[in-house]
Amino acid sequence: MKLARYLFAGFGLFGLMQVIPYGRNHTNPPKLAEPEWDSPETRDTFFRLCRDCHSNETSWPWYSFVAPASWLVQYDVDEARSHLNVSEWGRGKQHGEDAAQMIQDGEMPPSYYVALHSEARLTPSELEQFIKGLQQTFGEPAEDDHSDGHAGHEH
To answer: Is 70 a member of any domain?
Structure first.
């Protein structure tokens, strides 16, 4: 009997979570401008690995409609777009110069994203080429740029 009450309470709580609106509005803002990519290959790889979080062209997976996963996905996309959004290039401060280093250091894409999205896996040669392309597209951070608190951000 006690187990039934716990299950009922758990399902009730899960149901209540679904009415919280955050994380369910998955309309992508319009695409305004993109950076000048060094090559079509760099752009293609960026969109294969980074599009879902770092552009206004997010493909929202089924679990992004179910709380609490929807809250986490929405937070990750919002946070990522605030640091680097290639669909709004030229608006506000973008941190493109950190992109190559974050890829090289294994900080991006996050391991949980790669686990859920096999297309985000790169061979060592693809990875090397992508890093070079990002450096040519966005440049590299100055030595003192890491003091602004954005080095090591999650997205």
So the answer is: yes
Closest CA to 130 of 61, 26, 8, 41: 41
Number of domains in the chain: 1
- Asked if residue 129 is part of any domain, the answer here is yes
Rounded CA-CA distance 146/23 in Å is 31
pTM, two decimals, is 0.77
- The domain of 57 spans 30-148
Is residue 119 in some structural domain?
yes
Averaged pLDDT, 66-85: 91
- Contact assessment for residue 55 and residue 85, using Cβ atoms and an 8 Å cutoff: yes
Q: Is residue 33 helix, strand or coil?
A: strand
Distances (CA, A) of 62 to 14, 101, 108: 17, 31, 22
Phi, psi of 88 (to 5 degrees): -130, 40
